[in-house]
């Protein structure tokens, strides 16, 4: 199985996934092995939501839509053309996945297989229904993947390299436990937005997507705002209002009520609109239903702070602020070449 065969298999997987990425699911007769897999994957999507209340059908479909748009021949060409991917010795690469948003570990899974290695996956208990089913579909459209994909619920053993994602505490454990193996270890990161007060209503509405998508649980979700001293929050709150139905979701509402009670009892100053609280705070990781903000005197000081704290930051959302900024509304639409923590996992896998 050469690189082009692997790419072709994932493009077919993208065709399969695309059927489930819209509000109305429509079975396409042109998709390979659809009679065998279509109904079963619909069942897996229901199980995913029943098992994890944060995984609503809306958020699952949003994730699937993103992957269906990424798994195309053109996207693979753009992504992989800078690399020299040779058919060399297969290594066993363990992936320890997070489970904060649907299919959050899929990019690592894809990258290991596309570079020609075998994969040993340890999933989070929060997200364990979709990926094994998609892996089985891959094995049918490309039998060369059989024997290259394994899942385990036990301790990962007998591997050559590892990609592990977890909290700051588990990352320290990973660094110790995997110290003798080639590794990529990821910990908690958060995303920030740098506002000037000159943003349009449309830009702020796009920012609301960066804040609320996946209930704010992703590392690419904006959890912190940098704002000028004289910032007026009226336009910001007006732009957020389109997301007010989010408070009807019990898990989100429970977190909102709890965090609001904590702030009130602690007599913290905060602003809120019935479904979102904003609070002045130096930290980056804000609780669910809360966004922190920090005032700045000038943009140069914000740039220095972001550089100093770069290991805590995943994305910087802004307009005309820095070279690697993300446009408003685009944090949850990463491309294949947008690597977590800016660590090139293809380069890593080609080097082991």
Strand order of the largest sheet: 8-9-10-7-6-11
Total number of strands: 11
Number of domains: 2
Structural class computed from helices and strand pairing: alpha/beta
CATH topology of the largest domain, anyone?
Answer: Aldehyde Dehydrogenase, Chain A, domain 1
Explain how this protein is built:
- GO terms for molecular function: acyl-CoA dehydrogenase activity.
- By secondary structure, the chain is an alpha/beta fold.
- The protein has two domains: 3-188, Aldehyde Dehydrogenase, Chain A, domain 1 (3-Layer(aba) Sandwich), CATH 3.40.605; 190-317, Aldehyde Dehydrogenase, Chain A, domain 2 (3-Layer(aba) Sandwich).
- The chain contains twelve helices and eleven strands.
- The strands form two sheets. A six-stranded mixed β-sheet has the order 8-9-10-7-6-11, with helices on both faces. Strands 3-2-1-4-5 form a five-stranded parallel β-sheet, sandwiched between helices.
- Helix 1 crosses helix 6, helix 2 runs antiparallel to helix 6 and helix 8 packs across helix 9 (234-240).
List keywords for this structure.
single chain, NADP, Acyl-CoA reductase, 352 residues, CoA_reduct_LuxC, acyl-CoA dehydrogenase activity, Ald_DH/histidinol_DH, Aldehyde Dehydrogenase, Chain A, domain 1, alpha/beta
């Amino acid at each position: 199985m050469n690189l082009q065969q692997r790419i072709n298999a994932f493009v077919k997987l993208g065709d399969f996934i695309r059927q489930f990425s819209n509000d109305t699911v429509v079975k396409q007769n042109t998709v390979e092995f659809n009679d065998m897999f279509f109904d079963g994957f619909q069942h897996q999507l229901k199980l995913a939501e029943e098992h994890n209340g944060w995984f609503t059908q809306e958020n699952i479909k949003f994730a699937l839509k993103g992957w269906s748009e990424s798994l195309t021949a053109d996207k693979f060409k753009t992504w992989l053309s800078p690399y020299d991917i040779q058919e060399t010795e297969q290594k066993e690469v363990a992936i320890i996945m997070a489970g904060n948003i649907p299919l959050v570990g899929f990019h690592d899974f894809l990258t290991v297989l596309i570079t020609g290695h075998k994969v040993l996956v340890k999933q989070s208990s929060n997200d364990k229904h979709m990926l094994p089913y998609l892996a089985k579909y891959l094995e049918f459209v490309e039998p060369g993947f059989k024997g290259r994909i394994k899942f385990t619920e036990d301790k990962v053993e007998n591997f050559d390299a590892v990609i592990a994602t977890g909290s700051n505490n588990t990352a320290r454990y990973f660094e110790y436990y995997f110290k003798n193996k080639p590794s990529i270890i990821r910990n908690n990161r958060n995303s920030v937005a740098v506002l000037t007060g000159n943003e349009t209503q449309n830009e702020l509405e796009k920012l609301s997507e960066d804040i609320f998508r996946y209930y704010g649980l992703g590392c690419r979700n904006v959890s912190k705002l940098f704002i000028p001293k004289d910032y007026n929050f009226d336009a910001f709150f007006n732009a957020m209002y389109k997301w007010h139905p989010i408070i009807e979701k019990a898990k989100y509402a429970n977190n909102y009520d709890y965090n609001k009670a904590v702030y009130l009892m602690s007599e913290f100053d905060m602003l809120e609109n019935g479904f979102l609280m904003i609070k002045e705070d130096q930290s980056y990781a804000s609780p669910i239903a809360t966004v922190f903000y920090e005032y700045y005197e000038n943009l140069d000081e914000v740039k220095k702070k972001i550089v100093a704290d770069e290991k805590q930051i995943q994305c910087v959302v802004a307009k005309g602020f820095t070279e690697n900024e993300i446009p408003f509304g685009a944090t949850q639409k990463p491309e294949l070449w947008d690597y977590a923590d800016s660590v090139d996992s293809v380069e890593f896998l080609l080097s082991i």
